[in-house]
User: What shape does this take?
Amino acid sequence: MVDNVRNDLVGVGITSKNIAELGDSALNPRTSIIIRNTSLNTGDVITLNVGRDVAVANKGVVLQKGDVYADSNSEGYISYQGRIQAICLTANGKLSIMER
Assistant: This one.
């Protein structure tokens, strides 16, 4: 198994965007992901959709400036392996992502 670690800053705008790909459960499964809204303005509210659908503002995991979404393996629980989409109320959203 290869230990790939992702540390990234991703811009998010007013259109749904894929911010995390599918975990490769056979070769290199996702063991954790941390997503923080690091936008500069309080109006840059970002919504995540954890699943197959596109993100829709204020429907799903809503992250205000500074808020965090985290998921990781623990005591028999396997971290979500699917895609994660994001959308922002403005064109200026920023997400910091750590994934392994």
Q: What stands out?
A: The chain has no helices and eight strands. The first strand starts at residue 6 and ends at 12.
